[in-house]
Amino acid sequence: MADSSRTPIIVALITVTGGLGAALIANWDKVFSNMPPPVVDGRAASFPATSDVSGAQRLSDSQGAAFNAAAGALDGVTRQIEAAGMPGLAGNWIDGEGNRFEFSQDGRGYRFDQYQGGKKVGEGKGELKGRHFVHSFRHNLFGTGLCEGDVSTDGQTSSGRCQSGDDSWPFVVTRELGG
Q: Where does the chain have alpha helices with state H?
């Protein structure tokens, strides 16, 4: 039996995929009309180094509307995923030793910078799968390593274990109030 916590996510993805597919098929002529044929000369395409875009083709109104509809549908999926229990990590987190972590998130991927006493001392990046996460880090004192753990169901605490070389330690971080 499928995990019931994944059902809303699966339904949302199927709904969005179907809607985007139907919109694309219905507007195929509008989306792909007047597009220049690709240049096939054996070299990779590149953008000009200048900001001159005078020769660039602008999206027609219908192409822009199709793009905006797709972007709105994707935003709706993001809200459904968050509502289905996928935590958001973006914001500030603190640990019991006074370290502060500034997280940014793009879907399942995330990055963070670590500060101690207002000075940046480390950084990392990782991936969130449900409430479980794994990330690599680089720290001025500990060097490089990996951490693995879980975000609490309320999204306010994360805990797990980090390892760097032969050293391993547990951690707990809490979402900073107002952060």
A: 7-26, 28-31, 61-83
Region 59-83: what's the mean pLDDT? 58
Q: What is residue 5's three-state secondary structure?
A: coil
Q: Is the pLDDT of residue 98 over 50?
A: yes
Q: How many CB atoms lie under 10 A from the CB of residue 87?
A: 20
For 110, phi then psi, to 5°, come to: -145, 160
Distance from C-alpha of 24 to C-alpha of 155, rounded to nearest angstrom:
36
* Rounded Cα distance, 138 and 152, in Å: 24
Q: Residue written as tokens 């995929």?
A: 17
Q: What angle do CA 169, 88, 113 make, to 5 degrees?
A: 50
Question: CB pairs under 8 A, 24+ apart, for 114-117?
Answer: 114/139
